[in-house]
Give the backbone structure.
Amino acid sequence: MSEKQDSKTPHSALPTPHSDGFEPLIIGFLCNWCSYAGADLAGVSRLQYPPNVRVVRVMCSARVSPIYILKALTGGLDGVLVGGCHPGECHYMKGNYYARRRMLLAKQLIEHVGIEPERLHLEWISASEGPKFAETIQNFTEEIKKLGPNPLRKR
Amino acid sequence: MMAEKNYGGGVINTLAATLLKNTMVEGVLAYTEGLDRADLVPCFITKPEEAEKISTASYYPYSLSRLLRDYGEEGKKIGLVVRSCDARGAIELIKRNQFKREDLFLIGIECYGTVKSSKAGNQKEEFRITAEGMEAGGKKVEMSEENLSPNCQRCEYPVPFMADLSLKIEAHATQVFACTEKGEKLAKLAGIDFEKGAPKTPKREKALERQKEEFEKLRKMSPEQRLDYWFRQFDKCIKCYGCKDACPVCYCKDCYLGSNRLMVKGGEIPPDKMFHLIRLFHIADSCLNCGQCEAACPAEIPISLLYHALYHDLSALFHYESGVHEDEIPPLGMITEEELTKGGVDLA
């Protein structure tokens, strides 16, 4: 790890603001086998969705530890999306069940610390659900816009 | 300056001595008097004669289950004189494969609260807190519950029913309950009368009310207020690692919070907020509310409140009680049969 690592999000990474001014920056942890493929399908199908999400491909939604979610939120990101396979369809059999439990714990944790639990969203998106992916991003971005910027951006 | 000898009829001392005489254990971890009556320190007793010095006064003790980490070895049998929080700590370590249940002999004592020695007032006489009230030197004294350690005020498990024996110690007598077969065997060997089966006590009402009160205060704050409150508290942190060292559940030799180990930069005071959040995540579902973290913190951060509040909600969500049954796997390590058939992003 670089010694000079800065935990704050550089301003240049944010999308160009529209008339209302606040453009959320969302990180999406998508599982390789289902959600990422679904996102890919959305792209290939030329579906339009807001450009606010930055995708990180993980092999399984179970790979996403609440620590990454906390790091994202304390670093100033406005929202965290975790995408996995539908229950019963996990490539690694039971990964998404563990992920579900973890995300529930993470939601409670961030709520107790004082971050809105709506900033974390878990969604099951399969590889064939391109439109669902676009819809998820659309809805989540709107919700984050309503919540406003992450108060930790300033700290 | 020794503890009033044979308080409660000397039952604890007899039991510990019996364990050692019959070499059922290599040693007994217990509390004893340090500088004075009010200074309880841990000791490791290896000779039956030394069992006399065990003290069970209601002063705020160091957590014995934290010490277990240093004394535990493969197959080494250890006896412990534990309060409910220590017993639950030992069970949590057993769940994490740090010990085997057969290697630990838990002699539990009922505990209705402890006080920091500075708040106990008259230290010439031994101070005890019982279900009925507070007493010094065998006589009742007036003292407010507010003097109890904050975590003790919220503690709902006065009776260590998860231990091998549970003792109700009063001025001149001790009631012994044998919660397991091992406990029965020991009581018979020591020639002490006992009742079979753990005492069936409901959770402490006062504690549950206190929990409600304190957690409600946190819940009522708006997210901004709560965030501000906790982050201001975290700003006081000097990264002494006291909380992590004192916690019975934090057993990792190579801690994730170590400097420059991925998430927390070295040499930064106060540390990045991730320091606290990482520990919060690691302990979340297993917090015992033993209060050692808060006691250890030199900056007086009310950290035990945050951990207990989170644990309280997770306990309800996952139907899990930490430290009570050694077969109950922590929530993040298991999936129930029911869940396997459930779709959707929520458990309920």
In short: Strands of chain A lie at 26-31, 53-58, 79-84, 120-124. Residues 1-5 of chain A have pLDDT under 50 and may be disordered. Helices of chain A lie at 35-44, 66-74, 95-113, 130-147. DSSP finds four helices and four strands in chain A.
